[in-house]
Amino acid sequence: MLREKLVSGAPALGLRLGGEQLSLFETYARELEEYGKNVNLTAITGEDDIAVLHFLDSLSIAAAVPLAGRSMIDVGTGAGFPGLPLRIYESGLRLTLLDSAQKKVDFLDALCGKLGLEDVDCRCGRAEELSRQSGNRDSFDYAVSRAVAQLRVLCELCLPFVRPGGTFIAMKTPESAGRELGEASAAVGELGGKFERFFDYETDGIARTLVMITKIAPTPGKYPRRFSRIKNDPL
Ligand code: SAH
Mean pLDDT of all residues in the chain? Predict the structure, then answer.
């Protein structure tokens, strides 16, 4: 059962979920399953897997950094992960969900309405285009991303959004975190970042790692490049 999985899994992350949060997660899971019958939103289905692999996994970020009063952009959020569970957990989080696929953003818009979270900004667009607009550039406390691209590519999609002093958090497996960080070392520096630390955690026996990169300088104006360049000629 979703509720039991969440209640039993949250303490391992040092988190506690209240009744209102649990019922929002129930609505979220129901909408995922309902909407997912018609539209391919996520490969993960079934209450237990949604609880562990989507909700608790996303909530790991709340275990790692303070969220109240902070701004966050979730780049390539898909059906809302990791950003939306974090907003359910911390109502003081100012959240932007970004995805390039209109059908995902349509789902998120409808879902946020059902959850009563109208203040969540659901945007359809490409990261490398949106971060060129003032107001988005060098401005978020956090950029977060899960399952979108390898880290060296992800750095160019995410770091331009982060304000100096803010943090880019990439969700990876323990096996890939170190290797991808090694491959991304030039990209991190070039885009104004500096590796801060890994945050290791476990949900229901599954080990995961957050790669935390601090922004120490504004991103140079020539970045991000066009997606074909980012992908074919990564920094
Ligand atoms: N973060 C979610 C979804 C991962 S799938 C999760 O972990 O479940 C990757 C998503 O990234 C897709 O929905 C895709 O549309 C989006 N995406 C890929 N490249 C993007 C880009 N350059 N800008 C915005 N969204 C992008």
Answer: 96
- Could you tell me if the CB of 176 is within 6 A of ligand 1? no
Cα distance between residue 99 and residue 106, in whole Å:
10
**Residue whose CA lies nearest to ligand 1 atom number 6:** 81
Q: Is 42 in the pocket of ligand 1 (CB under 6 A)?
A: yes
Q: Going by CA atoms, what residue is nearest to atom 18 of ligand 1?
A: 76
For the domain covering 2-232, report its CATH number.
3.40.50.150
E-assigned strand segments in 147-218? 162-172, 193-203, 206-215
Nearest C-alpha to atom 9 of ligand 1 is from which residue? 148
Give the global pTM: 0.97
Going along the chain, which residue ranges are E strands? 71-75, 94-99, 121-124, 140-146, 162-172, 193-203, 206-215
Q: What spacing in Å lies between the alpha carbon of 76 and ligand 1's midpoint? A: 3
- pLDDT tens readout for residues 163-206: 999 999 999 999 999 999 999 999 999 999 999 999 999 998 88
